[in-house]
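Why predict the complex rather than its parts? Because the way molecules touch one another can change local conformation, and only a joint prediction can capture that. The input here totals 856 residues.
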Amino acid sequence: MKSYNTMSRDELAKEKDALAAAFAAHKAKGLSLNMARGKPGNDQVQMSMPMLDVINSSSNCSAEDGVDCRNYGELTGIADAKKLFSEYMGVLAGEIIIAGSTSLTFMYDCMARAMLTGVLGSDKPWAKEEKVKFLCPVPGYDRHFSICQFLGIEMINIPTSTEGPDMDMIEKLSADDPLIKGMWCVPKYSNPLGITYSDNVMRRLAALKPAAKDFRIFCDNAYAMHEVYRDVPLLNLLAACKEAGNPDMVYLFGSTNKITFPGAGLAFFAASAENIAFTTKQLSMQAIGWDKINMLRHVRFFKDLNGIRALMQKHAGILRPKFDAVLQKMEKELAGLGAGEWIKPNGGYFITFLAQAGCAKRIIGLCKEAGVAMTEAGAPYPYGKDPDDSCIRIAPTFPSLADLGMAMDVFCAAVKLATVERALEQAS
Amino acid sequence: MKSYNTMSRDELAKEKDALAAAFAAHKAKGLSLNMARGKPGNDQVQMSMPMLDVINSSSNCSAEDGVDCRNYGELTGIADAKKLFSEYMGVLAGEIIIAGSTSLTFMYDCMARAMLTGVLGSDKPWAKEEKVKFLCPVPGYDRHFSICQFLGIEMINIPTSTEGPDMDMIEKLSADDPLIKGMWCVPKYSNPLGITYSDNVMRRLAALKPAAKDFRIFCDNAYAMHEVYRDVPLLNLLAACKEAGNPDMVYLFGSTNKITFPGAGLAFFAASAENIAFTTKQLSMQAIGWDKINMLRHVRFFKDLNGIRALMQKHAGILRPKFDAVLQKMEKELAGLGAGEWIKPNGGYFITFLAQAGCAKRIIGLCKEAGVAMTEAGAPYPYGKDPDDSCIRIAPTFPSLADLGMAMDVFCAAVKLATVERALEQAS
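Output of the joint prediction:
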């Protein structure tokens, strides 16, 4: 197909009429579809149903060290869960806390505690600083940014390439400004780009020399084993930080919410033994402990790391055709049109479409008119502001394959129409 | 027996020698017992084991409105759980959030959020005030006080009678000082006194006219159905606050941690619809939702409020002999000695012993020497400081009846020895 870039004004006008007519036909179908939700499909959660059988009324509910999982105690989690999930997180058993059911809540809690009391090594609570700033690789996870916004932490956009965030910028900014207290990152199959940080990026992160001595990398390894097409190895950031003499600089987060049951999974916090000791002492002011029966349930269901791997391979088998469907539609409908680009991820939960600048809001608005809900434009950026109005996060995991096909037809039609509309505006 | 008060110096000296010898015999037994832990006994948690069967791999995991409890969503909890537990909390279904697994964590979280951002009606975050103060009826729950101490909130002791806290003092202080932002209370079978606030106290609480317009009563109704001897009715504080024109002044907390499984229960936050809406909006920044499978498990296990009542009657049947054992030992060993007083509670988890002033630390120290762990002296007071060094919290729920008998023998012997030692000091 001819690229819109090469079309004359008249050709564009004609094309627009044709595309508008095609789009009206989509609207007339009265669809109600959703590609906004980064949640597992029903067939994925169904695979963990046997986990609900491993603990029942006749079960021994003792952890391996004899702790009764049905009663109070074990603030940082039962030994069995620490053993399995420290391996999952790539840390030692003394470097993990099994922290409730959802990692997002614990990330918020870590940030809130830092604001209220500071972290290990802080001179004062972050909230007592004149201002607190965080570095935010973009596009990124909207809920990370919401936490900062809610707590009044100023966010600084860091552009991201397929290698990871712009390290020159991160090194310079963090070294210069003591009010920059940390950064967010999702280093593997990132939300939404689906990229994995290169070893070089991970080593440079670990070797940062921030002006703030209580700088923390909030590293949300949400998709550690969530491959779709290919397992991409990720350098262990805690190990790298130790090597670089920065053992306390990183907080690692993880969870089984996209492994077993969203909401009813386990959350993990991993860090240096010193960070763990400091955090445990603080946590003892706010918690007695979390659901140990659910910890035991997870451990008995998976048995070992291979148990987790095996389940995640099954998930990949379900997700691959869905990702294929999205990518193939884009290839078929949009390749060569100059109507935007997309990145094929190796894993994770999203596909990012980068529309022509100034088109994302319109595309998403058009989709909405035709009954296809997309993640809000701007959502992957701090303050909901995409400076280029270009980035669109597509979540292919929850809809059925059939729904996904219909939704992508609408999406591609919207992309074409919005791109041509924009080209016409610019031509006039 | 002759009261120590009426003994001469010589009589006391002789008595002390006898008591010291008796105590040495206790120490020689090499016991290892614990009356410090306010946790259910194994036989209590055993009663909830059938709850682990009601959801299994063949279960329909949909809530009554069709929500899939195995996937993301429903930040404030599933409708079924809101229905049952709003009834448990004595509020409407729109006045409750099912907030994770433990109420203490949610109480901390409410306080942390108030400090960071303020509550509904705040002009600014509490942490931006020159200082924040909280009223603390004493003796009270140590973990409430730890939250304040951790967050730098100044605590003011409020004496408590069997009717409840000193309302004259609370009314005056809260009306005079805008930096007093709230108060703690455990209105039913209170920790540790076991008293229940009178209707008059509850009405006066509801009718407070605090100088701080964003004053909040953190009302931890931890023992709503936890009778041991007698169900004592408690006036509904949210209803009373509404009547008094203060609908937003109270936060109610509750939990099933001492009903089903400590750590693996459900936590409840109840308040006016306006507080719920405000809090829900804030929570959406820090959470996607909590474990809905565990909510469904609770609802299907209990079915209705009578299901909870029936279980709590069984708990009472287990706890009564334990409370009896403690009270009878004290009656037998200590009545008439002038060695302290105790309050017979109608429910809850504790029995309070009020030693002669200046004796609590020594009694607890002696118990420790003889292998009987007691709650630390001072723990039921802000900053761990009991001004009279008198209050001792006895937790009879976890030990077996046999252990409890042995532990109480040691305790009573320690009380006698410490009291006589003190009387001798004062006589010299």
